[in-house]
Structures are given as structure tokens and as C-alpha cells.
Amino acid sequence: MSEPEKNDATLPAPKPLKVLIAADTFAPDVNGAARFAERLAAGLVERGHEVHVVAPAASRRHGTWTETHEGERMTVHRLYSWRWYPHDWLRFALPWRSRRNAARILDRVKPDVVHSQSFLVVGRGMTIEAAKRGIRVIATNHLMPENMLEFSLLPKFVQHIAVGLMWKDAKQILSMASAVTTPTRRAADFLEKATGRSDVHAISCGIDASMYTPDFSPRTENRIIFVGRITGEKQIDVLIRAFAQIDSSLDARLEIIGGGDQKRNLEHLAEQLGLADRVTFTGYVTDEQLRAAYARATVLAMPSIAELQSIVTMEAMASALPVVAANAMALPHLVHDGANGYLFTPGDENELAARLTDVLTADAESLRAMKQASLDLIRPHDIQNTLSTFESLYRGEAVTDPVTDVSSRQDGTLGR
User: Which terminus has fewer CB within 10 Å in the chain: N or C?
Assistant: First the structure.
């Protein structure tokens, strides 16, 4: 007779891990990679793990101390950093100190696993030094070198050469990782092509949908919202030009939330087009103010051409907003044309204006269907799924990538 199978309830709980997250951008920075690292760290602490974050200092003050993020306390090692003045807020740790800093912190902390958030300065040094010490490395990529070099001040022909060199370096650094992830399958395919790896996992950044309040009450105004960094790759100028084409009888308003180096130029563009009284540049806002902005909006416009996932789009969907997005990179992974909004040809202001008009003029039943579709499509992106998958990767366990690309043709409930 075979030995009776053990009941899962009798098995000891897995031992908590000591996780070191290496990030080139972290709170208080406001961008998708920083927000993901912050939510990941807080979620792991909440699950009982010991978390250390290594990131550039947000000011001249550097050192190691306890910080609170998303309501959870964690140890943060802030590295001496320099301000990059072509960018409106970016600070970076010094590359020539990267490996020395990594070695010092790794030998002190002795983590079970290093989770690198980029193949650049902090993540690069940590990956190399962790691999030397036999420490497991998980690497997540949020970076498109093409976008980063926008702020480099290099001539265009030099940028092209630099992009090739950066991807070559990425291939070398990512080859040291036990597992490589990126937020969507489309981004994973892109990364595999760029680095030669064939095993990149698609793991959503995840979102705590319970933090957002879907509102199905009848709309009282037509308000378009954009949230994100005010930079070139976001193509906000295309959105403003599209907004200028929307029929004035719809009495639409455009709210642009975020900060960045292009803010003054875009304010000037709005004035030139006679839109200054209908376009609001809100600047940076608190999380509570952002949730309120989603609640009062009719539709999110996302014209960006460089999203590896777009946490903003996920937040809007969790708020039951329809989305009109560029058919570029990972946005089609979230926005299903004709279901929870519409896709448009990147850079085509005429098409963007037409698709926004479709949402603004939709009857109550059609609008409700789009709002419900956003909620249905965001459900598989629950942050708890993301945390569980990374825990398995940290422990060296085989994982099946969470299914997050729910097709409206496969899900008969979508849009009802």
C-alpha cells in the first residue's frame, strides 16, 4: 500500500524570504517603474518577507534607514546620486560606484534573492555582484533605451548607436538572471527579440483594484483625462491637437495630470489653438486626488507610443473608465477595440479625435458596456497574482505566467 498523500494543511508554511529590490527609480519618483517597485516591496512586506530596497537618493541626503511605503515599513538603502538637469526630476546613482555599492550592501544584507528592476546602474551592479556570490537574481525590465536617450542631449545619429550598445549590454546583464520578466506578452516578445533570450516571463505589474471606485452614475459632463509624465514619448501634443477637433457643442474638457519637461510647450500649444479655457494642466497630485480625477472623468486618453504596460491605464480601467489608446507596444494588451474603448493609429490626431468623439457621444447603454468591459479586463491583473508569481520565481519554482490578456471574444460576460 502506498504511503497516504499528505494533506496540504499539514505542510509547513514556506519560510519568509529576504528580498533585495534593486531599482534605478523609486518613490518619491513618479513613473510606472517606481510605482511597481514600491507596490511590490510593500506587498512582499505585508506577506511577511524582509524587504530591502536599493535606489538612488531623492536628494543629497543618502544612507540607510527605514521608510514607509504603501503603509508598510521597509529598509531602504539610498545611494549618493546626481541630478540629471535635462530631466525635470531625475536623479541617478553614479555608475562607477555601482559594483562597489552593490558588493557592500550584499555582504551586509545577505539576501536570499535580488530582484533587479533595470539593467542600468543600480540593477546592473547588483546583478553582477549577486551572480558572483551565487545569489539568485530575478530581473524585471521596464526600460526602453530609445525613450531614455530622449534626455541624453546626444545627436540623433549618436543616439541610434547608443541604443544598439545599450541593448547589447542588456543582453549580457540579463543573461546572468535566473529568470527575466516584463509586464506583458507583447513586451516580452520585444525583449526576447532584442536580447536573444527565449524564456522571458510576462507578469503584470498588478494593481489593487479595491483602491479605486467605479462610478456608473449618469455622466454630467464630457471630461477627457490624461495621466502621466509630460514628456515627448507620451505624444500629448497629438492629444491636444485631437481635442481641438472635437465638436464644441459637446462642451468637452481636457485634464492633463502630471509634470515633465514638455509642460510649458504644451501649455503654449493649448493657447495657440484657443483651448486655454478648456485644457487644464493639474501637475502632480496625491493618490487620493488622482482617484478623484478618475472618478470625475468620462474617458482616459493614452496617446503614448512607449508603454510596456501602463499602470495609469490599469488604474483608469479599475475606475471603470473607457480608454482611447494608441495601437502601440503593450496598450492593445489592455484596451480591446470596441470593447472597453478604442485603439487609434499612433500619431493620428484625426483618428484620435474621432474615437474620443465616439465615447463622448455614446448612449448610456453603450457607455455602461464599455465601463463594465474595463472592469472585466482588469480583473486578471490583481496584485496578489503578481506577488504569488514572483514569490515562486524567488524560490526557484516553475511558474505559469498569469493569463492577463482576456479576449472579449472568449469572455461572454465582457461588456454586459
Answer: N
For residues 54 and 58, give the distance between their C-alpha atoms in angstroms, rounded to a whole number.
12
Per-residue cell: 228: 502621466
C-alpha cell at 203: 507578469
Pair (128, 216) in one structural domain: no
186 and 287 part of one domain: no
pLDDT attached to residue 411: 42
Burial of 116 (0-12, 13-18, 19+ CB in 10 A): buried
Number of structural domains (the chain) is: 2
Question: To the nearest whole number, what is the mean pLDDT of the chain?
Answer: 89
Residue 327: the pLDDT is 94
Write out the residue range of the structural domain in which residue 153 sits.
13-202
CA 93, distance to chain mean position in Å, is 21
3-state secondary structure of 177: coil
Amino acid found at 342: Y
The reply to whether omega before 380 is within 30° of 0 (cis) is: no
Question: Rounded to two decimals, what is the model's pTM?
Answer: 0.77
pLDDT (average), residues 255-271: 93
Q: Is residue 153 part of a domain?
A: yes
Say yes or no: 239 and 163 in one domain: no
Distance CA 289, CA 166 (A): 37
pLDDT of residue 415: 38
Q: What pLDDT, on a 0 to 100 scale, did the predictor assign at position 149?
A: 52
Q: Are residues 58 and 194 in the same domain?
A: yes
Would residue 55 count as lying in a domain?
Answer: yes
Residue whose C-alpha is closest to residue 386's, from 68, 137, 51, 37: 37
Helix residue ranges, H only, 155-310? 156-174, 185-195, 236-245, 263-272, 287-296
CATH number where 77 lies: 3.40.50.2000
Asked if residue 62 and residue 198 are part of one domain, the reply reads yes
Which of 202, 230, 262 is at the close of a domain? 202
CB 147 within 8 A of CB 171: no
Burial of 80 (0-12, 13-18, 19+ CB in 10 A): middle
Report the candidate in 136, 194, 135, 200 with the shortest Cα–Cα distance to residue 170: 194
